[in-house]
């Protein structure tokens, strides 16, 4: 499992016990700054640059999503929240979160998620059949043509590319990416439909990169 080392991490969490656990877990190999409120989080972002942010949503002085207004767009944010509804998850991802985990969560899973978002340049690029994904900058290109994807569409495409040639059902895709039992497979199917539509708009060749295998699911043509 990849670990997070020598990074500057901001933890915005009002729960004393969890904030302490996160600090102890990441603090032994990283520089960690903590904030208990939205105001403290915004102040920290104004004073320093961070490699990643772990963000709670329910804070004493407001919704953690407001922190995105103060963030550099390239700073990966992993939301760690008690709010586990489809609506909350999609709203968080829609605001630009790199990932959304529902409490309680394994600290090792959280670290793996963060490590993935902070891969060094060589490891941060996936390239197959003319499609190129930059995991760090979260950009997608088909040869020289950029493709604008939502956060969820990007996560799904990256997952399928890493596992090229292997089929996954909508439920398996959700569980593998978001590390929790699927809430609504229809939501994933909608994301997949929109993703394939965007690829098809580039070219038939690009659109054919994600295929459906009857009775098994979806796969990236490797």
TrEMBL record:
SMART domains: REC (SM00448), Trans_reg_C (SM00862). It holds the Pfam family Trans_reg_C. SUPFAM superfamilies: CheY-like. Gene3D superfamilies: 3.40.50.2300, Winged helix-like DNA-binding domain superfamily/Winged helix DNA-binding domain. Residues 123-222 form the OmpR/PhoB-type domain. GO terms for cellular component: cytosol; protein-DNA complex. CDD domains: trans_reg_C. Keywords: DNA-binding, Phosphoprotein, Transcription, Transcription regulation, Two-component regulatory system. It comes from the Bacteria. Residues 123-222 bind DNA. The modification 4-aspartylphosphate is found at residue 56. May play the central regulatory role in sporulation. It may be an element of the effector pathway responsible for the activation of sporulation genes in response to nutritional stress. Spo0A may act in concert with spo0H (a sigma factor) to control the expression of some genes that are critical to the sporulation process. This is Stage 0 sporulation protein A homolog. It comes from Candidatus Stercoripulliclostridium merdipullorum.
């Amino acid at each position: 499992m990849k670990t997070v080392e020598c990074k500057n991490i901001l933890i915005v969490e009002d729960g004393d016990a969890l904030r302490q656990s996160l600090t102890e877990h990441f603090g032994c190999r990283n520089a960690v700054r903590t904030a208990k409120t939205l105001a403290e989080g915004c102040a920290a972002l104004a004073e320093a640059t961070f490699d990643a942010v772990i963000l709670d949503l329910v804070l004493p002085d407001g919704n953690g999503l407001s922190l995105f207004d103060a963030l550099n767009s390239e700073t990966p944010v992993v939301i760690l929240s008690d709010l586990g509804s489809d609506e909350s998850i999609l709203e968080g991802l829609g605001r630009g979160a790199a990932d959304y985990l529902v409490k309680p969560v394994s600290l090792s899973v959280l670290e793996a998620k963060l490590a993935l978002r902070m891969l060094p340049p060589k490891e941060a690029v996936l390239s197959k059949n003319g499609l190129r994904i930059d995991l760090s900058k979260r950009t997608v290109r088909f040869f020289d043509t950029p493709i604008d994807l939502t956060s969820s569409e990007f996560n799904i495409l990256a997952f399928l590319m890493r596992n090229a040639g292997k089929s996954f059902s909508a439920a398996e895709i959700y569980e593998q990416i978001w590390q929790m039992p699927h809430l609504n497979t229809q939501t994933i199917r909608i994301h997949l439909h929109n993703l394939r539509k965007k690829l098809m708009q580039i070219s038939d060749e690009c659109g054919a990169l994600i295929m459906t295998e009857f009775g098994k699911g979806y796969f990236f043509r490797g």
